Amino acid sequence: MTEDNLTYSMTHSFPEFQKILNSIDKHKINSSIGLYTYQEMLRFHSIAGTILENFKDVANSIDQRNITHPLLRSLLEGWIWITYIHWENDENSKQSRFEELMNGFKIEYQKLFNDPNLPRKNELPAIPTNADWRPLSKSASGLKEPKNANDMLVAMKNDHGDRLDYLYFAYRIMSFDTHAKAAEALFLEAFQKPCSFSFIHPDKIINLIANNYIGVIKTHLATL
Predict the structure, then answer these.
(1) pTM (2 d.p.)
(2) From the CB of residue 75, how many other CB atoms can be counted at a distance below 10 Å?
(3) Helices and strands of the chain, counted as H and E runs
(4) 132-170: buried (b, 16+ CB within 10 Å) or exposed (e) per residue?
(5) For residue 152, what are the CA distances in angstroms to 29, 85, 217?
(6) What residues have CB less than 8 Å from 70, skipping those under 6 apart?
(7) Using CA atoms, how far apart are residues 162 and 102, in angstroms rounded to an integer?
(8) Which of 79, 91, 115, 203 has the most CB atoms less than 10 A away?
(9) Are 200 and 75 in contact (CB under 8 A)?
(10) pLDDT band at 137 (very low <50, low <70, confident <90, very high)
């Protein structure tokens, strides 16, 4: 994530986003897409606010990055889906892309629930008996399988006409870190030198997401 790529993000986007989010009447949201969008924004608001308030030295602190990278990766993935779903102001397109998300959810839940080594399954919601999720994992079913993060980013552009896939760098770096693979000891053993992974700037990512969410609220949530 370079400085140049994020020069268009608003410095004060997050405070503005907070104000606009608080103005939403959640009782007027009556669609699954709208509810998912709103709840993901609430999650972003809570986690991003915590990061900005409590982790101010990420560039120099491995301990802080151990916390912020997994959290930011989760927020970035949620933002990619929200942006992808609302990219075209067309109800059919939004519904189709939301169904991609739901198919992915069901595929992953099937893998979880059908894991033969998973204990205490009786404590998890069972797959509805009147729903057949099995064909979802087969491309021959004709149903849309969810795109990966890079494919969604490639499909979108910012206000300057630049594709958003430059963000995939940050997404993959944080994903690597999320899976406990960025420990200094591992880099020392592999390369005989440390690697800080300090080129992720939480405030820039958070303001970029907040700025986009402001647009989504004004354009879409008001009509859902």
Answers:
(1) 0.86
(2) 21
(3) 8, 0
(4) eeeebeeeeeeebebbebeebbeebebeeeeebbebbeb
(5) 26, 10, 20
(6) 174, 177, 178
(7) 28
(8) 79
(9) no
(10) low
